Amino acid sequence: MPNPEQRKSPGTDDANDGQGLPADKAPMYESEDINAAVVVEDNNINASVVVVESLQPPPPARSPVCLQEKIIFLVDTDIEVKELYTKKKTRLEVIKDCLSIFVEMKLNMPHHPSKRPEFSIYVLGENVGCFLKFTSNARDILSAISKIEAIGDSNGGPVDFSAICDLLQMKIYHMMEQDVLDSIYHIIFVFSRSTSVPTWPRHRRTHKNFLTHPNIVWDIYFVHTKSLDKNVQRKAKEVFLSLCDICDVSDMLNIDGTEHDKNKLPSYIFARSAGGHKLYLEFAFLMQHPALRDVQIMSESEAFEDKVWI
């Protein structure tokens, strides 16, 4: 598969590339049976995301390419996703198309029965919550994707990425304890808030251990508003750079000099504000098993910040 190229900064002229996803506080979705999915108000979200610092699963003993892939879709459902992305489809409709194609293609690839990918879905509105628990049942997954709706209105306020990170860390570490065969946890974060900057204490020990764990990969797609307004472009660029900090953890690696830091798999990030076919193509780049991918290429002509080295 060809290496994806880093796109232009949000706000440049060529199709105004962009991507995104928000996380804040929103109604929580829980669905044992996707056909009976209901919205559950989680008033104890802050209490439920407490992370035990001592919980540090060991690195995998086997080659990562031999590990089962467990994929988490983290989808921003802020009201901004209702905006038209193409002439006929909203941003959310295009995102759901991409997710559905991804699932169908991924599950149709040849896999060993014990290595069949599993999918889970989280949504980010006012809160972050689980919408579908891990399953490899295509019908359940596609049904869940079709039921994702726009919920919440951030009004451009900052997004608490710490709450997202803590919740996923708690869930994933719990699964790692029970995962005898080991797995790669592949998080695909689709962020759609053009002016809401994700904020978090980046060098907090629990965040560092989670983001640099060799079994965990973050990919991000920032789907933002296309605008000629310089202020909107500047804000989208700020959001994009904050998202880059989630993907690019190179400055966190080798802090402790531990061996597993050297085994960190590469993350990809894309940003787009127009061009449906290009969005589908770039989403396809995320389909390859993370252990088989190369480091994302950054074209000098398209780089808008020296910091983007992912």
Task: Give a structural overview.
This protein has 310 residues and is of the alpha/beta class. The protein has a single domain, classed as von Willebrand factor, type A domain (Rossmann fold), CATH 3.40.50. Helices cover 27% and strands 18% of the residues. It has a six-stranded mixed β-sheet with strand order 5-4-3-7-9-10, with helices on both faces. A two-stranded antiparallel ribbon has the order 1-2. Strand 3, helix 2 and strand 4 (118-124) form a beta-alpha-beta unit. Helix 2 packs antiparallel against helix 3 (138-146) and helix 2 (91-108) packs parallel to helix 7. The radius of gyration is 18 Å and the shape is globular. The protein starts with 27 loop residues before the first strand and ends in a 25-residue tail after the last helix.
For the largest beta-sheet, the strand count, sense and barrel status come to: 6 strands, mixed
Strand-and-helix sequence, N→C?
A: EEHEHEEHEHEEHEHEH
- Helix percent reads 25-40%
Q: How many structural units, i.e. domains?
A: 1
| Distance from first to last alpha carbon | 17 Å
Per DSSP E runs of 2 or more residues, the count of β-strands stands at: 10
Shape verdict: globular
Number of helices: 7
- CATH topology value: Rossmann fold
By CATH, the architecture is named 3-Layer(aba) Sandwich
Poorly predicted regions: 4-55, 299-310
Summed over residues and divided by their number, the pLDDT gives a mean of 76
Radius of gyration: 18 Å
